[in-house]
Amino acid sequence: MTDEIVIKAEGLTKKFGNFTATDHVTFEVRKGEIFGFLGANGAGKTTAMRMLCGLSQPSDGTATVAGYDVATEYEQVKRHIGYMSQKFSLYDDLTVEENLVLFGGIYSMPRKKVRDKITELLQELGFEAERKTMVKSLPLGWKQKLAFSLAIFHEPSIVFLDEPTGGVDPVTRRQFWELIYRAADNGITVFVTTHYMDEAEYCDRVSIMVDGRIDALGSPAQLKRQFHGNSMYDVFYALARTAKRGD
Predict the structure, then answer these.
(1) What's the CA dihedral at 215, 221, 224, 227 to 10 degrees?
(2) In this structure, what CATH number is given to the domain that contains residue 222?
(3) Over the Cα atoms of the chain, what is R_g?
(4) What domain range includes position 67?
(5) pLDDT tens for residues 173-188?
(6) Which residue, among 242, 204, 210, has the nearest Cα to 36 in the 3D structure?
(7) What single DSSP character describes residue 229?
(8) Domain ABC transporter: where (predicted)?
């Protein structure tokens, strides 16, 4: 992790009619950081991520990602990031290899580099025997690992992961986080949304959203000290109680 700021949001807001999904969110993320964007379902995490990925226009406020304005340079933003959605973004009716070739083509990677990357990636994942396997035949945890590998296949500077570990068992979740650590060690900034509070412990810093606002921001250790908790669950429940009282 370095001091270089690669994501910066100031007062980022998204409204749908009279409903404010993301309410004046402000934060920064550094290069190589694993930044957790936490909160209960419906807290506004996915809405904020979609704006940062150039997929949705802000109603108010500003944000830059990889040096590009998300409101005016969203196509440049998309070219410099990776993205993994809750649905994994895989094509079930293509083989593992065909998915990788397709994504390499989407990002205009040279054919030789695509071939070399495929061989390297399948070896790293232990998927050599699955090269010609249809994706729909893979177990859920394998699909998850493949989807993450596709999100960083073109070597982006930042990868956005939206609830990437939903629906899988704890062992597979830990294995997935090993892939995240490896990406961060290679200088990729990881921005991950999750509602699993235990996963916050794996992040360098976390923000916790409540009702569209960021109500806490810091390292897991800092937040546990601040809210007198032994775990990130304690921190989250303390914030939820405060929000409920309207303090």
Answers:
(1) -50
(2) 3.40.50.300
(3) 18
(4) 1-80+196-247
(5) 888 899 999 999 999 9
(6) 204
(7) -
(8) 7-236
